[in-house]
Amino acid sequence: MNQQTQGIAEPGTRHEPEAAVRNFSVLLSSTPRGARLARLLAVDTLRSWGLPHERAGHVIAELAANAATHGRLPGRSFRLTLYVVGATLRIEVTDARGERLPEPQVPDAGAESGRGLLLVEALADCWGVTEGRFPRKTVWAELGFRAP
Fold first, then answer.
1. Please, are residues 42 and 57 in contact by the beta-carbon 8 Å criterion?
2. pTM here?
3. 63 to each of 10, 50, 96, 110, 116, how far by Cα in Å?
4. Whose CA is closest to 135, among 104, 102, 94, 103?
5. What 3-state DSSP class applies to 80?
6. Which of 83, 96, 76, 92 is nearest to 129 (CA)?
7. Is the pLDDT score of 45 beyond 80?
8. How far is CA 38 from the centre of its chain?
């Protein structure tokens, strides 16, 4: 793990006057180990915030695996960022392959891979891609939940 930040802006602070905004961000190596670590750190963070983590863990695992597999450039990391605003969790995974935009595919019935974005689509309330400053892109997903 290269870098990690976590914060909470409490109500009434200059950062967020109306509600607490929780956030977590970590830079990880674009490897299978980095993708697994992304899920583990995110689930641990969501648990510490007292938030549901089952759906989010699956979405994070898929987005991080895609970043480590399809968004990989040698020597470049990917960033996982979580924001909680009100009753919405926003998951963002930023990688260094802005020219490779993800598209859900329908794999062959016997294929062992290719269903990740279909899973994200099924579990998230919405998802999309934001093209960043070249060469980056951010794949994001939002999940609603009941506030504790």
1. yes
2. 0.82
3. 29, 22, 14, 22, 8
4. 94
5. strand
6. 92
7. yes
8. 8
The CA distance from 38 to 74, in Å, is 18
Q: Can you state the percent helix, strand and coil of the chain, rounding each to 5?
A: 30, 30, 40
Closest CA to 98 of 68, 132, 51: 132
Which has the higher per-residue pLDDT, 133 or 147?
133
The answer to whether 8 and 22 are in contact (CB under 8 A) is: yes
Identity of residue 44: D
Q: Tens of pLDDT along 100-136?
A: 787 777 777 776 666 788 899 999 999 999 987 878 8
**Residue whose entry in the numeric block shows the structure tokens 């329908």:** 106
pLDDT higher than 70, residue 32: yes
